[in-house]
Amino acid sequence: MGLREPLKLIAEDCGLPVALEAMGERWSFMILRAAFNRIYHFEEFQSELGIARNILANRLSRLVDHGILMRNPCPDDRRKIEYRLTEKGLALLPAMIALRQWGEQWGSGIPSTPVLVDERDHQPIRPVTIRAHDDRVLGAQDLCWRQAEEIRPLSMSREEEAQAAE
Amino acid sequence: MGLREPLKLIAEDCGLPVALEAMGERWSFMILRAAFNRIYHFEEFQSELGIARNILANRLSRLVDHGILMRNPCPDDRRKIEYRLTEKGLALLPAMIALRQWGEQWGSGIPSTPVLVDERDHQPIRPVTIRAHDDRVLGAQDLCWRQAEEIRPLSMSREEEAQAAE
DNA sequence: CTTGGTAAGTAGTGATTCGCAACTTAAATC
DNA sequence: GATTTAAGTTGCGAATCACTACTTACCAAG
């Protein structure tokens, strides 16, 4: 039977299945990207993405159910509904940018214009990387797993000590 | 007809559709995660993930086709085949970690043990963030789009100037 | 207040994919 | 030679996807 088991039940030690449960379907990330690009209404999503209407309705509902989008009826035109990113939805930006940058760099090498830049000085953003607590950039070979109990704080800064003491 | 158009044809200005074309299917990220966790063989993936065998075979082939995994017959046991991450596959680590961290933080708030730590000092890694060229952390409101031509270098370091002059 | 148009969503219909189990092939092991 | 193991492949029913057409609620013009 195609009764698909939620992915999050498979490896609960990890947040990845939880994230995929919410965002792992075919159009979810494209809808999220559109929402970041100030697309707010059903018809806008539909014409922007070319997605089938029933699928779009289903995805938007799912994203709302997962608390990634919020559904606000427009006060000025009560036919219209605005889908807006919640805080939880906005928090997906690093994941989306990381995916996007990977696609740019490794997928058929498109220079990809327009470029995403820092609004303050209009310089391109850096590639998204894994960072150690002291901001060193880490690769896959620099990482390993530890139980939470094994982690011991070493050489806190003043700020961090003050924060930890709360 | 369900003849699904590749997502990358829809918005070519962006690497996201390209990334989703390769990694957007149901099990792809779970397989990638397993590969990062030193799962290399078909039967290991199968028992680790509980995925159907035909789907697993299909996904592994697709990931190999996309250059994310490489398929190496084992010299010692010629029945066995090792699926190993390529450089392109390893480059997905930031995207995967970003997704994982989002799932941890926003999905039912699991503390998530074991924790991913820096191998050098066994301290937990930082949350993945968007960074400006000078390493400032940026949020969604700090970003905007620019044409590549509009970007002008300002205040290069010696190294960057030397690199740009090549 | 009726007609036309727009926004959002639903229903119907095939094509495709998914999930499960059983089967196949080739190589290693007993 | 017989059995076991690794890596798939095949067949089938269920779920999902995509396309089109239809519906409902609302706004706007005449």
TrEMBL record, chains A, B:
Alphabetically ordered keywords of this record: DNA-binding, Transcription, Transcription regulation
Residues annotated as domain HTH hxlR-type: 14-111
Source taxon at top rank: Bacteria
PROSITE patterns: HTH_HXLR (PS51118)
InterPro entries in alphabetical order: HTH_HxlR, WH-like_DNA-bd_sf, WH_DNA-bd_sf
PANTHER family linked: TRANSCRIPTIONAL REGULATOR, MARR FAMILY, TRANSCRIPTIONAL REGULATORY PROTEIN
Name recorded for this polypeptide: Helix-turn-helix transcriptional regulator
Organism in which the protein naturally occurs: Sphingomonas colocasiae
